[in-house]
Design goal:
By secondary structure, the chain is an alpha/beta fold. It has helices spanning 53-60, 94-104, 109-123, 138-150, 168-185, 196-202, 230-236; strands at residues 2-4, 14-25, 28-38, 42-46, 68-73, 80-82, 156-160, 188-193, 205-210, 213-218.
Length: 248
């Protein structure tokens, strides 16, 4: 079961503790997984499509209750989640999308207006406030989704393949924004990705997830060190031309 822990948060090293977590969906088996995510770090789950990355993120986010083991999130603030498709409300403007989460958390009208102004200034989207999602570029949608999520200042931000639909130049700009979010909001960030470069560029630690199991957790600089596990070596392309790393 997920436990939202509100006591003695400030001194705890970990913000997420996963112990012996298992979940079966159809024929797919996730786990067993034992993992701790440290407060203030950027942690990337790296793996192929179908490895169980999104399912694990959804478990951390509290989407499911029917699983074995325990997941503890040491925070008294709701987890922030940005999905791959952004999930912006198409009938609401950018300002209304961002305000929606604040209203759900019962902020007053004046507080909501101030927070919308401040957060859109941080993300550089003040000029988009009156526009609707279908008029936005991919990067603008991404920043709007991030602004909506960060307006409530979560301690933990979960990002599911957040850059997959963006061009290279836009990705680089958003990478910088993610690192600014970590510093400005003092939050922990978990990124789901299949992109080696992305994991190395952003993460403090990388968890290699294959076939529902976390095979290794390493610093980015150690990602391409040869291991005893041939399956991990094959996934990382170790033994082939390392200079031509690909995204899976």
């Amino acid at each position: 079961m997920i436990q939202q822990c509100e006591e003695e948060v400030d001194w705890m090293e970990d913000i997420v503790s996963i112990k012996d977590v298992r979940m079966k969906v159809g024929e797919f088996q996730l786990g067993p997984i034992d993992l701790d995510i440290k407060r203030g770090e950027v942690f990337a789950f790296l793996g192929k499509t179908g490895a169980g990355k999104t399912l694990l993120m959804e478990l951390i986010g509290g989407f499911y209750t029917h699983y074995e083991g325990t997941i503890q999130v040491f925070s008294d603030v709701p987890v922030g989640i940005v999905l791959q498709e952004y999930a912006l409300f198409p009938h609401l403007t950018v300002a209304e999308n961002i305000a929606y989460g604040l209203k759900c958390h019962h902020y007053s009208k004046s507080e909501t207006q101030k927070k919308v102004k401040d957060i859109t200034s941080f993300f550089g989207i003040n000029h988009l406030l009156g526009q609707y999602p279908d008029t936005l570029s991919g990067g603008e949608k991404q920043r709007t989704a991030l602004a909506r999520t960060m307006a409530i200042r979560p301690d933990l931000l979960l990002l599911d393949e957040p850059f997959s639909a963006l061009d290279v130049a836009t990705k680089e700009r958003i990478y910088g924004q993610i690192l600014k979010i970590k510093e400005e909001f003092d939050c922990t960030i978990v990124i789901i990705t299949h992109d080696f470069h992305e994991a190395i560029r952003l993460a403090d630690r990388v968890g290699i997830l294959l076939h529902g199991k976390v095979k290794d957790v390493v610093a980015p600089g150690e990602l391409f060190v040869r291991r005893q596990d041939n399956e991990v070596n094959e996934f990382l392309g170790i033994g082939e031309n390392v200079d031509k790393k690909r995204t899976i």
